[in-house]
């Protein structure tokens, strides 16, 4: 039995909190962070909560050169009863370890990670915004810290969790986005790292995003790398289509990131007896469905926006409008239900939310 003692070193000064009703995504960080180190031959050691601060790293650290790094993204919500709720956090820790495995990063004890997260949230509890639609965004990540220029898995790592209060994603109601089908660049290939949350996938996607934005589109629709024909994801979200009463989403194929929101949407639809299928979907099929007038709704899913309706897509010099450019009924219902469950205002039949108990912050010792 291993015993973890998470040391807590509280900051002697507290930062000025930003105004919670005009928060920009990912720009403000709380007073503390969690760190645990890994050293080959020892394992993960010295878990600690410390004041939020810059890292001092050797410029030869492997993360800077070969991108051996993974991350996660989830949120904590403050309920009307001042309770703090996490949404399926164990799914994120499982996925973190799947990403770790793909990047040759050693596995992290998921219970330690979750316990550390809860304690960190308690330390910075006052940073959870309470304005409607706001939340505390949680960014766990791992970096390779061995100073070595050889291409090989690092012998040292840091697993860090930082917290950022974020504003409402939709300030003026849900706005459908316009997307461009990407023909030149691909996000991920079969056998590559598409199903791992690793930095390289995002660095590689910036170019297509930049080109699309210049043309007036807010996201790109990614097609598969082999045939450039099957739909994979939209931006860094999973994608769903409602065609003639049936909901379809691309089946997981190794290059698609397995979203927690995606899984939750599929489970909700099944619970409502709405037909939902995971399968290959070609861009031609979507084009034809739009032409036939049976493409009823299109939406992206992810932690940040939860549901992001698509009002128009650009494909082969044609602008194809979906649902008159408006948010569909099912998209809205899914958004309201999922955000309601996350906030504790709608019943949670799946047991998805996890309460962060106030005393968790004083339970400094974690037993396994
Ligand atoms: C994180 C991510 C998603 C969405 O995952 P959630 O767990 O729902 O937030 C989808 N696609 C990509 C590429 C991602 O990085």
From TrEMBL:
Stored Pfam families: Aminotran_4
Report the EC code(s) recorded for this entry: 2.6.1.42
Source superkingdom: Bacteria
Gene3D superfamilies in alphabetical order: 3.30.470.10, D-amino Acid Aminotransferase, subunit A, domain 2
**What's the catalysed reaction?**
L-leucine + 2-oxoglutarate = 4-methyl-2-oxopentanoate + L-glutamate; L-isoleucine + 2-oxoglutarate = (S)-3-methyl-2-oxopentanoate + L-glutamate; L-valine + 2-oxoglutarate = 3-methyl-2-oxobutanoate + L-glutamate
InterPro entries found in the cross-reference section = Aminotrans_IV, Aminotrans_IV_CS, Aminotransferase-like, B_amino_transII, BCAT-like_C, BCAT-like_N, BCAT_family
Q: Which pathway is this protein engaged in? A: Amino-acid biosynthesis; L-valine biosynthesis; L-valine from pyruvate: step 4/4; Amino-acid biosynthesis; L-leucine biosynthesis; L-leucine from 3-methyl-2-oxobutanoate: step 4/4; Amino-acid biosynthesis; L-isoleucine biosynthesis; L-isoleucine from 2-oxobutanoate: step 4/4
The Swiss-Prot or TrEMBL record lists the needed cofactor(s) as: pyridoxal 5'-phosphate
Name positions with the PTM N6-(pyridoxal phosphate)lysine.
197
Q: Which UniProt keywords apply?
A: Amino-acid biosynthesis, Aminotransferase, Branched-chain amino acid biosynthesis, Pyridoxal phosphate, Transferase
Q: Name one GO biological process term.
A: isoleucine biosynthetic process
From the UniProt record, which GO molecular function terms apply?
Answer: L-isoleucine-2-oxoglutarate transaminase activity; L-leucine-2-oxoglutarate transaminase activity; L-valine-2-oxoglutarate transaminase activity
> Would you identify the family this protein belongs to, as annotated?
Belongs to the class-IV pyridoxal-phosphate-dependent aminotransferase family.
Name used for this protein in its record: Branched-chain-amino-acid aminotransferase
């Amino acid at each position: 039995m291993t015993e973890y003692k998470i040391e807590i070193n509280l900051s002697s000064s507290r930062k000025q909190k930003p105004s919670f009703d005009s928060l920009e995504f990912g720009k403000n960080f709380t007073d503390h962070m969690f760190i645990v180190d890994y050293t080959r031959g020892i394992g993960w050691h010295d878990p600690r909560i410390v004041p939020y601060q810059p890292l001092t790293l050797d410029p030869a650290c492997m993360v800077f050169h070969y991108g051996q790094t993974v991350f996660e993204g989830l949120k904590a919500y403050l309920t009307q009863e001042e309770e703090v709720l996490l949404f399926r956090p164990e799914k994120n820790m499982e996925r973190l370890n799947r990403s770790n495995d793909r990047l040759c990063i050693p596995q992290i004890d998921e219970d330690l990670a979750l316990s550390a997260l809860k304690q960190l949230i308690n330390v910075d509890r006052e940073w959870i915004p309470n304005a409607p639609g706001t939340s505390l965004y949680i960014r766990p990540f791992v970096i390779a810290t061995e100073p070595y220029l050889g291409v090989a898995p690092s012998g040292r790592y840091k697993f860090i969790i930082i917290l950022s209060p974020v504003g409402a994603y939709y300030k003026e109601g849900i706005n459908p986005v316009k997307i461009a089908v990407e023909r030149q660049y691909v996000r991920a290939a079969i056998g590559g790292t598409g199903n791992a949350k690793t930095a390289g996938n995002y660095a590689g996607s910036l170019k297509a995003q930049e080109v699309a934005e210049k043309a007036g589109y807010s996201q790109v629709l990614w097609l598969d790398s082999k045939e450039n024909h099957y739909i994979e994801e939209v931006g860094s979200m999973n994608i769903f289509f409602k065609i003639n009463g049936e909901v379809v989403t691309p089946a997981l194929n190794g290059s698609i990131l397995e979203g927690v929101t995606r899984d939750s949407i599929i489970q909700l639809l099944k619970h409502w007896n709405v037909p939902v299928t995971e399968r290959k979907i070609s861009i031609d099929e979507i084009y034809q469905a739009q032409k036939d007038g049976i493409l009823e709704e299109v939406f992206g899913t992810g932690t940040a926006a939860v549901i992001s309706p698509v009002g128009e897509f650009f494909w082969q010099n044609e602008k194809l409008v979906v649902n008159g450019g408006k948010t569909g009924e099912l998209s809205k219902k899914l958004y309201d239900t999922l955000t309601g469950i996350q906030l504790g205002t709608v019943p949670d039949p799946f047991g998805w939310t996890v309460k962060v108990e106030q005393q968790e912050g004083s339970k400094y010792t974690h037993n396994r």
